[in-house]
């Protein structure tokens, strides 16, 4: 059977592993093929044309081939447009990469999520503070929904009853969306949760969700973090722990 070759595939590098003295294994998020693994032969050599291109958080077009679990990179072209982020923005980029690697199975396409990823990378490259936080919350929501881990946000999960606009509700890993208790760390009103669901259902979910998250980010952050940690099987994601360690210095 002929080896399949894919050309001109939009992609981002999520992570890189040493394979040999001259080669790397790449974890890559592609638009039409999902998360895949590629071997980049000879890329660590000083003469390699791939060496300055295969960086995280940079838009690429790739060509690759092979039928094995780890395919072979054939070519890579940088699409330009983004400066390499630094500081808090760079850690935010590593954070979304860790989420994608943790929650997406390999070879499972998610074109809509890829587009949201490209949107959040663009924000990371140019924004900071509240805008950056809102972009991260928006991506977390879209990722959780895409992989089927986000409950309907305009309905109580256990009762399937409609939310009351003025009542407070909390998103919890084991029970979905429920009425808030006095000891809950954070909650949103029924009207706010319903607004989030409407933006997720819109034709441009990242842009519309970004606007909504800008006003709700502080309350959303601990609730989404608990949900992400629960489904990732960890108490703290590695990039989150790195941020905490840097802040404590």
Helix content: 40-55%
Unreliable stretches covering 5 or more consecutive residues = none
Total number of beta strands: 8
Report the mean per-residue pLDDT as an integer. 90
Short note summarizing the structure:
This protein is an alpha+beta fold and 249 residues long.
Explain this structure to me?
There is one protein chain. The chain has 249 residues and is α+β, with helices and mostly antiparallel strands. The protein has two domains: 5-78, OB fold (Dihydrolipoamide Acetyltransferase, E2P) (Beta Barrel); 87-248, de novo design (two linked rop proteins) (Up-down Bundle), CATH 1.20.1440. The chain contains six helices and eight strands. It has helices at residues 87-103, 111-126, 129-146, 190-200, 205-232, 238-248, and strands at 5-18, 24-30, 34-40, 60-65, 70-78, 168-172, 176-179, 188-189. The strands form two sheets. It has a five-stranded mixed barrel with strand order 1-2-3-5-4. β6 and β7 (176-179) form a beta hairpin. α1 packs antiparallel against α6. The longest helix is centred in the C-terminal third of the chain and has 28 residues, at 205-232. It is elongated. The chain starts with a strand and ends with a helix. The relative contact order is 0.12. The mean pLDDT is 90.
